[in-house]
Amino acid sequence: MTVVKTTVDQALTVLRDKQTPIAQRQQKLRDIVSATFDFQAMSRSAMGYYWKQITPDQQQEFQKVFITFIENSYLAKINEFVSGEVKYLNAQPNGNQFSMVKTSVVMPNTGPIALDFRLLNLNGQWQIYDVLVDGISILANYRNQFNRIMSSKGYDTLIRDLKSKEASLAASMGT
Amino acid sequence: MSTQGPMKEQNERTASGFVRCAIAAASLLAVVSFAGTVLAQQPATSAGSNPPASAPGAAAPENLPGENQGVYSDPLAPFNESMFTFNLKLDDWVLRPVATGYSYIAPQPVRESVNRFFDNYRVIPRFTNNLFQGHLPEAGGEVARFGINTVLGLGFFDPADTWFGLKEHPNDFGLTLRYYGVAPGPYLMLPILGPSTVTDAIGTAVDIGMNPLTYITLYTDMPWWGSTALSGGIRIIDAVNYRSLHIDQFEEADRYAVDLYGAVQDFYLQSRENRVKELKQE
What we know:
The structure holds two protein chains of two kinds.
Chain A: H1 2-16, H2 22-36, H3 39-47, H4 56-80, E1 85-94, E2 98-106, E3 112-122, E4 125-133, E5 136-137, H5 138-152, H6 155-173
Antiparallel strand pairs in A: 1-2, 2-3, 3-4, 4-5
Helix pairs in contact in A: 1-2, 2-4, 3-4, 3-5, 4-6
Chain B: H1 6-39, H2 77-105, H3 108-121, H4 123-132, H5 136-151, H6 159-162, H7 173-179, E1 187-190, E2 194-197, H8 198-209, H9 216-219, H10 226-245, H11 249-256, H12 260-281
Antiparallel strand pairs in B: 1-2
Helix pairs in contact in B: 1-8, 2-10, 3-10, 4-5, 7-8
């Protein structure tokens, strides 16, 4: 719970800090995000069944491409919550290794959005590996997309699509 | 209309009403039997079919909670995918431009009121399905909401929520079916109506059947196509209005999705699953 609270509070502070130039803010956010999110676990989980079907080289390549993509996605998404007010609800531990933290974000124009975080405890450090928006797991959503591409078009198309989507995201964020 | 006297006219009207009902029933039967064969096949979610991932790091866990979600068998994929493309094109070429134009002439508060009006109008499926699932307080709440919103809110406002804290409890027949254990069935992309499953599509048909407007030709002087035109027209206004309030929804989804079809599919199926779980806990 404290991990999520600290991260979110830090992130929001950085986001709302109009004094610092945007590039610096983005970099700070990037640092916060890469420290608290377990992108390795996320990339393995996003591949799901196909993780074992690809070669170790492909695994490495995929991790790199996916992590760049998902990092930028989360950064872009976080920007959307800049005017939201976050209410921390509770933490539901699931054994010693897993936990789920529930929050509710009240945005000015629409109703409250449920934002939940799934955390994983690795070597004493809690890290986020999934975010659920209104109960929808973002990781599961990507897993479905990747499974479809892997089963119908194959690994190379997936890498290519990931890279091009990442490029268009970066372009739209102005970085 | 006819010169053979009121009795004959009454019979004609009733006959045409019955014909329409028969057609609706026949198509429902067709859908159900089709569904029966398809439901016997794989369900929409393939649970537990993922072999555990072996982690490269020694300390990393084998399986993360929630890992087996998000893999669907989608036996109707060819149909679904072409329907999805059709829906996107329809939205791009027709619905979105119309909704954008509409949003220029109708201010936001007006469109939100219209949205509330349609919400209020859809009380019957919400009420009956909450009842079917045994959620009596929610069913009663829907009746109260309808009364308060129609009288005090004139249908366009929601004093039931803002003054009395009575929240809406969305429900539909597809959820009722799932609540009682009917399998969700394969993912099915409906033309115009969007993502669904075989079970949910049956649910939608039943909910449409509960709409009193469907039967209006039985009781008035309208021609036989009157109620179809009326309910169709109302649905179109509802769709345009709703779309105008969510102008960027596809752009948003497309921004982050590597595979838009898969993203929409998973989003829909996850949210239905969540809703059923919520309902079972209420």
